[in-house]
Amino acid sequence: MRYRVSGDALTATLSDGAVLLNLHSKRYFSLNETGTRVWGLLEQDAELDDIVRMLTGEYDVAESDARRAVMALVAELLAEGLVVGASG
Amino acid sequence: MSSPDLAVPGLAQSPADIVNSQSVARCWRHGLIDATTGHDGTFLLHTAARAALHVRRGRLARGAGYSAAPPAARRELARFGAQLVLRTRGLYHVHAAGVVAPDGRAWLLAGESGCGKSTIAYALTRAGWRVLGEDGVLLQRMDDCLIAHAWRDTLQVSIELAEYFPELRSQRAMVNWLDPRHRVPITPPGMQRAPIAALVFLNRARHDAITPLPETVALSMLVRQSSTVLLSDTCAAAHLAALRELVMRVPRFLLAHSAHQLHHAHETLLEQAR
Question: Inter-axis angle of helices B261-273 and B117-125, to 10 degrees?
Answer without folding.
Answer: 80
